[in-house]
Amino acid sequence: MADLKIQGLAKSYKDVRVLESIDLDIASGEFFTLLGPSGCGKTTLLRTIAGFQSQDKGEIIVKGERIGTKPAHKRDIGMVFQDYAIFPHLTVAENVAFGLKARSLPKAEIEQRVIESLKMVRLDGYQNRLPAEMSGGQQQRVGLARAMAIRPTLLLMDEPLSNLDAKLRIELREDIRDIQRRLGITTIYVTHDQEEALAVSDRICVMNKGHVEQIGTPFEIYRKPVRRFAAAFVGTMNFLPARLDGGNLVVGGQSVAYPHVEGSGEIEVAIRPENVLLAGGAGEGAAITLKGEVRKVTFLGREAHYTLKTEAGEIVAQVADPAHDFVTMEGRMVDIRLPLSKVALFRPNGDVVKAGSAR
Ligand SMILES: Nc1ncnc2c1ncn2[C@@H]1O[C@H](COP(=O)(O)OP(=O)(O)OP(=O)(O)O)[C@@H](O)[C@H]1O
């Protein structure tokens, strides 16, 4: 059974539609991420689920119960915020106990849950500290412990790692994922960071301008985007203008037999940099072949990125473990192969014609 069902949820601020009719089914124990650019409505959706604001239309159903009109404090939801939102004048233990006291739990149980929750976020021993005496990462761990202490049905997190530096972000996201798995708590996580979304999620919902573009596992979103928006937003993608011409695909003046899709018309070819083959790279079957001038080489140690100028437009290629010859190629002309098994095709309206490869 779905733990959380969202049906036809819509919200406007004055005349501006921020959420178009949103439908979601989130399974029990799932780590579900809302991913999208700034302003796409992620926070509004999360806050509506939490009950901090009301929807104009639609239903929010948790374990079969319609909670859309319940006040926030009766929704049995734990929330972790970007700016931690822990109380500066309360100790760590008092912060974690806050929601438990509000629920009038017996004192002994509160004490036990505080200890348990702090242990879970690796802050045992910090009970008597004040937030000002802790680092940002530690403060967010307190925020997490506070949200989990009430053992909520749903855990909602709004960009919880945004205020932390890159190394801490990775460390804490691993911890969040481990704790979430261990407790099996249904979680909705908001981020605009696509790498973070790929790393932690069971499923990702890619949002754009108040609507859902695609929902899928990280693998599906990356390998088989069904909308141009998802293809462009997650990872790096090359897009080249092209034409379908009665069984042929024409890219940069080069034509290749393409019987997989019927009809004719303008189209875009999309391919990930790691799937572009350079300088006679063999295999992968039929391919679009182009010539390109190497404009820039960025050597990154275990891989190098090549910016190539071709008749069809600019292409970025990624070569793993580049040999010395490869890193001194600036200015040279190279043969480029775009294996047909690896390209995705998108119509001008952004719909997929053929998804990329899922191996
Ligand atoms: N209280 C409000 N009054 C009016 N407009 C609002 C209000 N809150 C948000 N908006 C607008 O609604 C849109 C969606 O905002 P929201 O915060 O949900 O987006 P987001 O995807 O979470 O973006 P970000 O990552 O920047 O937080 C934005 O255009 C924003 O300006």
TrEMBL record:
Pfam annotation, one family: TOBE_2
Protein family per UniProt: Belongs to the ABC transporter superfamily.
Keywords, ordered alphabetically: ATP-binding, Nucleotide-binding, Transport
Designated name of the protein: ABC transporter ATP-binding protein
Domain ABC transporter residues, every copy: 4-234
PROSITE patterns in UniProt: ABC_TRANSPORTER_1, ABC_TRANSPORTER_2
Gene Ontology MF term list: ATP binding
